[in-house]
Amino acid sequence: MEKGHEVTVVAPENFREFVEGFGISYWPVTGNTEHQINSPEALKILEGGSIFKFFYHLQKVSAQTADQSNRDILEACSHFDHLIVSVLLLPIVYSIAEKYRKKCAVVFLSVPPIPTREFPFQVFGTKGHVWFNRLSYRLMGLAYAMISQQVNRFRKGIGLPPANVMKACLQSDMLAITAVSQLLVKQPVDWPPGAHVTGFFFLPKPATEKPGINELPEGLEEWLAKGDKPVYMGFGSIPIPDQAKFLRTLDGALAKKRIVVGVGWSVLDELPVHPDLFVGKYVNHEWLLPRCSAAIIHGGIGTVGAALRSGTPLIVVSILADQPINGEMIEQKKLGFHIPFKELSPERLLRAIDATENPVITQNCKAAATAIRNENGLEKAVHLLHQYFQ
Questions:
Q1: Edge to edge, what strands does the sheet with 231-234 contain?
Q2: Are both 8-204+375-389 and 220-374 of the same fold?
Q3: Looking at residue 385, what is its pLDDT?
Q4: Which one is the CATH code of 220-374: 3.40.50.970, 3.40.50.2000, 3.40.309.10, 3.40.50.720?
Q5: What are phi and psi of 82, to 5 degrees?
Q6: pTM beyond cutoff 0.70
Q7: C-beta separation of 377 from 199 below 8 A
Q8: Among positive and negative, which fits the CA dihedral 242, 247, 249, 253?
Q9: Where residue 207 falls among pLDDT bands split at 50, 70, 90?
Q10: What are the CA-CA distances from residue 143 to residues 38, 48, 151 (Å)?
Q11: I want to staple 235 with a disulfide (CB 3.0 to 4.6 A). Which of 247, 261, 298, 335 is the partner?
Q12: For the packed helices 346-355 and 243-254, what is the interaxial angle rounded to 10 degrees?
């Protein structure tokens, strides 16, 4: 927008206030992802931690609104010259780009599914044998098989032949941006010319003071001023799958630490009332994390990036998807610790919180913050997009 382009964000209905709060044009898509992810069945699958079961469930739930959602996206895309898409909608938007003969770029917000010999597909960890690494990306075929029928039905409806769209994307010359710091993911030498690791993206200042975007929860500043730096706990858009386990852990941690809980998309009915506990639904990470001694998060890459940029030591309590890999990377690089949610306990969490005070961890986090601030990932990505579309 600063370079003179008109930009519209096309997203589910529950993101309207967030997008428009930044003064950006918004186009609604049928469906509410926050409601879908909080169903009892979804929470049970989250507790199990299987990304394939969770992906399958999301596809099954979204099937009820998929046809209308896809029509919304088709209508939206017809109005724009160029398209930028995230990974989940890639098969649909790539097909629309094919129909309208428009250029399409993809932005991966976590470790991408682009085959390489240097590291395996993310469900297999961060390290593997060279011969296995590239082979591991064939597992994507299983994930795509779950949605291929829906994609081909959509393609038929817009006059296109059936196709393996993920394979077509990987074999195309489309621009693929990975918005992750090279501190965590070095760009592989065997990637195609159009694939780039730029660095994290960070939000600009909001255009408005709407709650959940920039407005601080009432009383937070006063609470922070009353004691030592607290620990932050927040699981963002991944609901906490086992409330009882979380509450036991929170009670144990409150015996020794002040804690700020960002509820996010979790539904927590029985949070304790305690002078050392502050609870808010959304809290601005850029403002809050530098005021905290450690951040306990689910390990989604956006929150990892925010914490690293703030120089705050991390404890990743991973649930599924890319979170275990991100936690593994954080621990390997001595920027914090990784505890799978299944293994969470008050004792283990307190040990990890105490260990984040190790000078090696704190110095590494300060150095990482400086490196990430100097990467200018957003500027690099905008330059690449501008070149590609022109």
A1: 277-280, 259-262, 231-234, 294-297, 314-316, 336-338
A2: yes
A3: 97
A4: 3.40.50.2000
A5: -135, 155
A6: yes
A7: yes
A8: positive
A9: low
A10: 22, 18, 13
A11: 298
A12: 50
Q: How confident is the model at residue 211 (pLDDT cuts 50, 70, 90)?
A: very low
Place of tokens 């110095």: 363
For the four alpha carbons of 325, 328, 332 and 336, in that order, the dihedral sign comes to: positive
| Angle, CA 165 vertex, CA 162 and CA 169 arms, to 5° | 145
Going by DSSP bridges, is the β-strand pair 336-338/8-12 parallel, antiparallel, or unpaired? unpaired
Query: What single letter denotes the amino acid at residue 246?
Result: F
Classify 8-204+375-389 by CATH class: alpha beta
Identify whether the C-beta of residue 192 lies closer than 8 Å to the C-beta of residue 178.
no
Which of these, 298, 301, 260, 308, lies nearest to 281 by C-alpha position? 260
- pLDDT exceeds 50 at position 153: yes
Q: Where are the domains of the chain?
A: 8-204+375-389, 220-374
Note whether 336 and 316 are within 8 A (CB): yes
Local structure of 232: helix, strand or coil? strand
The percent of residues in the chain predicted with pLDDT above 90, rounded, is 55
Q: Tell me: the pLDDT tens digits for 134-146?
A: 888 887 777 777 7
Alpha helices in the chain (DSSP H): 16-20, 33-37, 40-48, 51-77, 90-100, 130-136, 140-157, 165-171, 220-225, 243-254, 285-288, 301-310, 323-332, 346-355, 359-375, 377-389
CA distances from 18 to 15, 151, 206 (A): 5, 29, 9
Q: With beta carbons less than 8 A apart as the criterion, state whether 37 and 52 touch.
A: no
- Measure the CA–CA gap between 122 and 128, rounded to whole angstroms: 11
Handedness of CA 57, 63, 113, 79 (dihedral sign): negative
